[in-house]
Design goal:
Elements lengths: L5 H5 L24 H30 L5 E13 L3 H10 L6 E14 L6 E12 L2 E13 L4 E15 L3 H10 L2 E13 L7 E13 L4 E10 L1
Antiparallel strand pairs: 1-2, 2-5, 3-4, 3-6, 6-7, 7-8
């Protein structure tokens, strides 16, 4: 056999087509969402959820927040009043310029309406009623404690019976007021109690001051004006 030439020994090169793979992501037709829009949407959703809760909690706190009781003088009556030394005091007053002591026997009755505006009951220790004349304290009575149901009104009666009450400073003014038929008296009512709220008992106070004008001849209440003290 003859020798194989260089070209014949090399042979023909066989080529294969090169395939390139391309991957494409599907296009989204929706417009791009900005981060600020997402934040606003989240804030709105949170507000929509929290707003009713805050509203309910606020309303509950408003309804359950303790309020002071309200005191109202429903009825006052000067049951009796006498002065055993009146005639002697008048005579001595004409003879001397300084004020003399004047003995009074006085029986004063008061009826109070105590209103509980809370959604829980109130237990009060006492109600103190004081009676005065032109700044002088004539006497006081302490009414026994009790309970006031929620959103209810109770009636409390008190009687102040003063025997031999001696008036020194304003004895002269007292004689003039008796002679004029207009005797001004002052009453102060002080309430002290606690709200029965589960295991918590907030302290409650209320004060009421009244000015009363009495006809000393008939014991009739001519005028009455009351004011709640802050």
């Amino acid at each position: 056999m003859g020798a194989m030439t260089k070209e014949e020994g090399r042979g023909e090169a066989i080529g294969y087509p090169v395939v390139h793979h391309h991957y494409y992501a599907p296009l989204d037709d929706r417009p791009p969402v900005l981060e600020s829009s997402k934040t606003k949407s989240c804030a709105f959703q949170c507000f929509a959820v929290l707003y009713p809760i805050i509203l309910v909690l606020g309303f509950t706190a408003f309804m359950l927040w303790p309020s002071d009781v309200k005191i109202e003088v429903h009825k006052t009556e000067l049951v009796s009043m006498s002065w055993d030394s009146l005639k002697r005091a008048i005579v001595e007053q004409q003879q001397r310029s300084n004020d003399l002591g004047l003995d009074l026997d006085l029986k004063f009755q008061v009826q109070l309406l105590v209103r509980n505006p809370n959604y829980f009951g109130v237990r009060y220790d006492r109600i103190v009623v004081e009676l005065g004349y032109r700044g002088d304290k004539l006497g006081r009575v302490v009414l026994e404690g009790g309970e006031i149901p929620a959103l209810k009104v109770v009636t409390v009666d008190g009687v102040m019976d003063l025997k031999g009450m001696r008036v020194f400073v304003n004895a002269g003014s007292l004689l003039l007021d008796i002679a004029r038929g207009r005797l001004p008296l002052e009453t102060d009512m002080n309430f002290s109690g606690n709200l029965e709220f589960l295991l918590v008992h907030p302290h409650l106070e209320a004060k009421l001051s009244c000015e009363i004008v009495v006809n000393p001849g008939t014991n009739e209440i001519m005028e009455k004006s009351c004011l709640l003290a802050e």
